[in-house]
Specification:
Length: 253
Amino acid sequence: MTTFLSTIGISVLAAIAITTAANLCTTVYLHRALSHRALSVRFPAAFLFRAIIWLTTGIKPKEWVAVHRKHHAYTDVDGDPHSPILLGWWTVQKRNVLLYREAAQDPVNIAKYAKDIPDDKWDRMFFGHQKTGLLLGIAIIMVAIGPVAGLLAAFLHANFYLAANAAVNALGHHFGRRPYANNATNLQWLAFCTMGEGLHNNHHAAPSSPRLSHKWHQIDPGWWVIRSLSVLRLATVRFSDIRLTASAKTTTN
Ligand SMILES: [Zn+2]
Ligand SMILES: [Zn+2]
């Protein structure tokens, strides 16, 4: 019984650690650095971000970038890959993976929205092979904490990661505060779970800002990591201040 409970406990702790790492790479690297060019990340930090994304999510960065840029280009109007205003928040929460895949597998989207992210030699060798990355990631965790605990941790992580990132697209355009007059919302609890992404209303008001917290009481863990990388000279932020879009400047609620 004790062994069974300790296996569960180790799996849950490992899953939380893996999801936290995956969410950090998603928000700092895929979202703020690649999609919005709010910061540039240097080697070896960039390589580490790519490797963690490959091992923990199987996401191809150029696909994530294309889907996300299309969301900004058509926010909550026809063409948005995952709008809860058009589809309903529960449909986006449930079907986010399928909606993402549909947009990511459309070569027109990749050509239009991610032409600045060509495959390089690391993609050809490793990062472009999504299933290999996921299988290797599962193998590493099974070796690290044991086969049963490792498999359970991988299963829990997949659910945590997919649910949290679906929530940004679904809840983050439906429930929560709207300090700026856009359809996205701020949910601090979701920002804790997603390393800052839950401050989504702030993000739509200032997409080029590497920092998603706009008030002293808002907490954006991704920004702490960006500041640490900057101190270590592994990243450079494009703007140190928060640059609101023209519409956000004039339509603050
Ligand atoms: Zn959004
Ligand atoms: Zn964005």
